[in-house]
Amino acid sequence: MKEEKLDKNNLMEKIVSLCKRRGFVFQGSEIYGGFAGTYDWGSLGVALKRNITDTWNKAMQDHPNMTFLDSSIFTSGKVWEASGHVSGFSDPLIVCNKCKEKSRADHLLENIGIKADEKLSELEINKIFNESRNKIKCPGCGAKDFGKVHASNLLATSNLGMLDENEQQVYLRGETAQGIYINYKNVLDTGFVSIPFGIAQIGKAFRNEISPRQFLFRKREFEQMEMQYFCNPNEAMDNYEIWKKERMEYYQMLGINPKKLRFKPHENLVFYAKAACDIEYEFPFGWNELEGIHYRGDYDLTQHQKFSGVDMKFCDEETKEKYIPHIVETSVGVDRTVLMVLCDAYCEDKIGESERVVLKFPPKLAPIVCAVSPLLKNKPELISKAKDVFDVLKAEFGRVAWDDNGNIGKRYRRQDEIGTPYCIVVDFDTLADNTVTVRDRDTGEQERIKVENLKSYIKEKIQ
Ligand code: GAP
């Protein structure tokens, strides 16, 4: 088996096309020409996403003192005033005077090799942009004719429950974290936890991204896996280091290429943050943020205490000390993780003389664990035996496919393309000795395994 060197330039196009062709991900509202920044998940995409969220939940569950939450997407508008999102959650928008295309000024600067932090003020980014105006081209029409840079708020507004114009503006949540902060007291008051403890949550978030791009990387509707760890201020920095280590180990446990993962400390910390870094992955379009790990001090709870009037202090029963807990946050997008897993798994190679595309998913993440086929489609005795094998495996693993379409070679290619680690074929020998062939996706090698040993064979391989 010979692995071909991948051309990074059109790798994203190949992945997008495979995702559509095989039913992982479809463009949102495609029959109406598409709706930017949205994607719909097909059957294999749903399974891949579920396997990822399951591993995240398991990793969180394994950490001491973890609780879980599912908070509403809609909240009181005051939540987003308290959090600072209404006044300060924005991207630098620039509009082309010729074709009216909207772009992010920091991205256009990046295109000509100038790094502009996304957290710069409107004034600062205008200054940097003006210095290079004559070098910057509109990605839409190529003109070098732009207006001024404006801060464009990322919160998506809604009119849910708005009865008249005097009522407070309602937003779709821009992150799941705020739902955790506003429930911190509720969770503490249940009496099951004490400081330190964590609240973990998976859920949708919405952002008015100016230029959603790179497929699942930057969407307008996406899902986050966020965890907030509430701790004593004296222990917060240690917890930050523990979470950094745990989160990097999580990606290695998933089977992601460690050479494509790295920590990147934040250069400009927001005023309330004590420490922050990203875990970056080397996507085909370069190193980019996968997950953020932030030591946020007591900023969030202090803000909600101020705006809601509710006392957010924790009272230590033993020491009688009273304080607002400090928070360590880990935050990663499900969609971005799926994209990383797809990029990490995508391979083009040759088995013998035959070229193929293969998704080498770690078996625990593969949407389908194994596919079962009768060697020939027109032999009832083979079909009947293969159905028996299929039923047993399906009952055990769930993620099992029946595949009798086309010849065996075509079935293997199709299963390779969706990343199925094992293909099981029932042939005439099966009828004589109750063994089947099991083909390994990565090597193409085949073994004969006794039907009664299949369940334990597969179980051992996918752990
Ligand atoms: N609560 C902190 C927070 O939301 P963030 O850096 O804005 O921080 C955290 O987002 C993670 O959410 C990112 O590292 C990324 O994985 C994911 N994410 C953010 N914006 C996204 C978008 N527009 N599309 C897809 N994923 C996104």
UniProtKB/TrEMBL annotation:
GO terms for molecular function: ATP binding; bis(5'-nucleosyl)-tetraphosphatase (asymmetrical) activity; glycine-tRNA ligase activity. Signal peptide: none annotated. One of its GO terms (biological process) is diadenosine tetraphosphate biosynthetic process. It is an enzyme of class 6 (ligase). Gene3D superfamilies: Anticodon-binding domain, Bira Bifunctional Protein, Domain 2. One of its GO terms (cellular component) is microvesicle. Keywords: Aminoacyl-tRNA synthetase, ATP-binding, Cytoplasm, Ligase, Nucleotide-binding, Protein biosynthesis. Its EC number is 6.1.1.14. Residues 13-363 form the Aminoacyl-transfer RNA synthetases class-II family profile domain. SUPFAM superfamilies: Class II aaRS ABD-related, Class II aaRS and biotin synthetases. Belongs to the class-II aminoacyl-tRNA synthetase family. This is glycine--tRNA ligase.
